[in-house]
Predict the 3D structure of the following.
Amino acid sequence: MSTTLDQPLKAAMAARLLEMADDELILAHRDSEWTGHAPILEEDIAFANIAQDELGHALIWYDIRRSLAGDDPDRLVFFRGASEFRNMQMVELPKGDWAFSMVRQFLFDTWEALHIEALEQSRFTPVAEAASKIRKEEMYHLRHTRAWIRRLGLGTEESSRRMQAALDVLWPYHGQILIYPTDYQLLVDESLMPDLTPLSAHWIERIQAELSDANLRLPGSAAVSYTRDHHSPYFPALIEELQQVARIEAEARW
Amino acid sequence: MTDTQWPRFEVFLIENDGKPAEHVGSVHAPDSEMALLNARDVFVRRPQCRELWVALSAHVLTRTAQELKEGPPSRQSEPRDTGEQPYLVFAKPNHRDPLALWHCLSAASAESALGLALTIGQTSDCTMWAVVPQAKLTRSDSKEVEAFFQPAETKRYKMHSDFPTARQMKEVRQK
């Protein structure tokens, strides 16, 4: 285990942590758009909890990045331009209907469960320790979204149709899980970060099993080609809303 | 008007090993598994908890002290009773304290479980009772303690005065 990194590793780690933090931040924002609008009160509370957890995870990764690269998380979140964010497009797509948000959360939670487990094995102590804290929350998220996937997949003709439609839109983005910084391999070689290729294969297997239990199928549609510095047309409006208060009052604290 | 709500479940919470299960409120859910998940999200985001129970409200018999004065519970078995089963009897000892687990006993019906419990416990100040057949309770799995309850331990309540937002808004307006 180690608590410090040499220069090339430090830069690679900081770049990867930014991607991980941005994924969590943007998903948290989309999830939080359901607050006050979820199908029932209990679920409104549950999904707001999940959004808050994901935001907390983002802060954990931004904080570790700060210890390596020195940049303040608030500056990163509130004063970067939309094109400087490094999240996947999958998490920035509009929240859609309840089925869409549940399918997205399910795909992400299933990934996180595997990814976090692998991160707990990191030789970089701050990452391993953060992962073991996050893992407990992620176990619960997955429990929650899986319950919804089964009920909506096996529910009515309408719920099943909406779930399949959500999958058909979201699945072409799944390959984005495997987009990482060019120097990421350095981290894998030093056992600081996991090799994502076998992890991704495992992820797809798990998803396939869960979906077939819910009578849903993975579409065969072509993958969306993508890099993490290219965003969807929906993204600038999201960032504008997220940054609005900070941009009006730069000294605001909360 | 038709009720489009999902069925209601009563929620009972055990804070720690030393405390009895307490009634904390209710949630709506399509089934008992979802009821447990909803109960966790509504009642255990922050407080301490080691176990949750849910039961369909329709399976819970409740009686207030006033109702018992008007008609004491019947201890007669109903003809359709095929045998005894275990019941959990909850009592609210006074206006302040929660409705908490009081007795576990076997009886032929919920009514008769309550009647039996009233003969063996101190009841003078109790304001309310609830009786649940043990078989109708769904409990959180002890294997899931880590995912269900441990995250809450690191989350603390913050008073609204802990946030500088209101004062800051005033300052912004004054500018």
